[in-house]
Design a protein that fits this description.
It is a single chain. By secondary structure, the protein is mainly α. Helices cover 28% and strands 0% of the residues. It has two helices and no strands. The protein is elongated, with a radius of gyration of 21 Å. The relative contact order is 0.09.
Length: 69
């Protein structure tokens, strides 16, 4: 399966606009899988929380793994 990635603006229309230079790369027949990823402000808060957790010191139980390297 080949992937073609592009960014487009979503509107209240039920039509997804595909840039013409990308549309020319799409085969004229066959099957395609479409995945739409959107920006989500809640996701940014989760990412920040995960990053802060990552930066915290390891617990005493995890300290043993530092001696392996």
């Amino acid at each position: 399966m080949n992937a073609i990635e592009f960014t487009t603006e979503l509107t209240d229309s039920s039509v997804l606009n595909i840039p013409s230079n990308m549309a020319s790369q799409i085969p004229k027949s066959g099957r395609a899988r479409v995945i739409v990823l959107t920006d989500d402000s809640d996701d940014k808060e989760w990412q920040l929380g995960a990053y802060e957790q990552f930066l915290r010191d390891d617990s005493d139980e995890d300290a043993i793994y530092e001696s392996i390297i």
